[in-house]
Design goal:
It is built from 10 helices and 14 strands. By secondary structure, it is α/β, with parallel strands linked by helices. The protein has a 7-stranded mixed beta sheet with strand order 10-9-8-11-12-14-13, sandwiched between helices. It has a 4-stranded antiparallel beta sheet with strand order 2-3-1-4, covered by helices on one side. Strands 5-6-7 form a 3-stranded mixed beta sheet. The longest helix has 15 residues. It is globular.
Amino acid sequence: MSWKLTALAPRGVIEAALLAHEDAFDWDPEIVLSGSEIAEDRPDDWQLEAWLARKPSKADKAAIAALFSGKAPKLVEEKLPDVDWVTESQQGLEPIRAGRFHVHTPEHPPLGDPAVRDFAIPASQAFGTGQHATTAGCLEMLGEMKARGLVVRNLADIGTGTGLLAFAGLHLWPRAIATASDIDSVCVGVVEDNARSNGIAMGAGPGELTMLVADGMEHPLLKARGPYDLIIANILAGPLIGLAPHFAKALLPGGHLLLAGLLETQEPQVRRACRAAGLRIAERKVNGDWSILWLRKRNGGAVRASRPGILPDWSRAW
């Protein structure tokens, strides 16, 4: 059984509520929020949706209402059929073309263009089928990085979801050591299945992907495999701000950071946190309402970590 609460308001009001949600450190993780426009021809009319696995209590409604400054809009309560809404929402998705990549569900055929890498990513419990503007923007930016001559020998995809961005990184830099992680353990099986169906090798060597369950950069193997040439993180603005110094520490001097999952209105806060950590903007793009940022770590300063491929014995058997 699942329930949904919906509030209608102008775009600025909903975006402000989403920002307040990210700052609410005591937020109940079982209340999942999203904001979106009601229709393409009404770009200023938005809705805030809150999903719960239980009937909303007065405390739940009060917590959502408290996200709004001033009087909160009316919350409409709805009981939903017992289905996996993440999977359901992705059924029948049309293929997308993002730079050098074509992403489609198994129901659609590959593009068959030798200059384009096809990825078949089924609807699943994990985020990142390529349909969302942030994921598509990251795919395009990765292609631009490659076109500008970026060489990557060691990469990490933090908050990988389906594994798609890690797969794209390995396609562009096929001899790189690649590490993917997600805080959600369900992503392990999702990534392994997607890797198998897309011809991505799982393992610890060059050209192979290692999958971990980790909260941000907090995993001994993530630390042991650094420093990285490239870190990808398509998550949310709040975690990106908190993780900025950890990303900087894990990068080589001159290393690259690709960030997404932030609204354009949240970009100044994220860039401020990155600047304080010694990261400078190299390129940015906006895809819909979302910003995709390519940053570089300043050269200089000692980095003490194992070189890519020179790992302790315990990490090889992880």
